[in-house]
Amino acid sequence: MTDDLSIPAHEEGGAFCVAALYHFAAFPRFESFRAPLFALCKDNGIKGTLLLAHEGINGTVAGTDEAIATLLAFLRAQPEFAGLEHKESRASRMPFLRMKVRLKKEIVTMGVEDIDPNQIVGTYVDPKDWNALISDPDTIVIDTRNDYETAIGIFRGAVDPNTKTFREFPEWVKNNPGLHNKPKIAMYCTGGIRCEKATAFMKQQGFEEVYHLKGGILKYLEHVPEQESLWDGACFVFDERVSVTHGLKEGEHRLCHACRYPLTAEEIRSPLYEEGVSCPHCHGSRSEEDRERYRQRQRQIALARKRGERHLGS
């Protein structure tokens, strides 16, 4: 394997603080909040994505410790977000290219109307109590993430719905009556936000004992020692680190920039892998015209690297 195809080892810790955050709250002034929020992030060198909607805020951002602390203090000073919680991890380099603050219909898109986690939601379970719950034979454990995320890591014994998007989850539930066969439903996701809506939906559908992992996989990997863990693999994250492992250390996956699928070292050694062009997951579904277009983009990325710049398509 050549150096170009190897996955670089990540540094321990990192200079950048990565904050994943969300908060459900009635937030009718979300449109007018966009400009001051963007300005604060830009002035403090913060990059990432924040979503604003009538139902609250969601996103992941990165910056210096001081910059992230400034942002969190600003958000918690808003009456709607006084109780906002967040998860922190480290990155050895800035994991985002730019800052985006977007206005959305939902801060996490399920596509089901009248779902309000502020009114009805499942029971939180702390990471230290999660193992006991999912080991209970009366519990069905459901991963609410998408297929490209579950492909690289999942809790032992969990049901994988194999959804392409979170919009598919409600239909999957309705098509699986066997979920009613056990009294307890335990659900989890990356940081907790999808489970807020997923457990609200399950309660609406008549499931009574519905639980979700507080703080999601990220909190579990942060607080539960690896030797006690029931988590297998790595956790996909939506930034250039691609994945994190126990202790929230940066993982060793690389992203296929043609299909956005996380790749292992073995998949990168595949003859179907071409950087920025194809991988074993997408090679058969792309035309030669597609691949040539991706090659042109990759050449532009390579030229930007030679100039010491980062191309937005990388």
Automatic annotation (TrEMBL):
PROSITE patterns: RHODANESE_3 (PS50206). Residues 135-229 form the Rhodanese domain. Pfam families: Rhodanese, UPF0176_N. Keywords: Oxidoreductase, tRNA processing. The keyword Ribonucleoprotein does not apply. Its EC number is 1.14.-.-. Catalyzes oxygen-dependent 5-hydroxyuridine (ho5U) modification at position 34 in tRNAs. Belongs to the TrhO family. This is tRNA uridine(34) hydroxylase. The lineage of its organism: Bacteria, Pseudomonadati, Pseudomonadota, Alphaproteobacteria, Hyphomicrobiales.
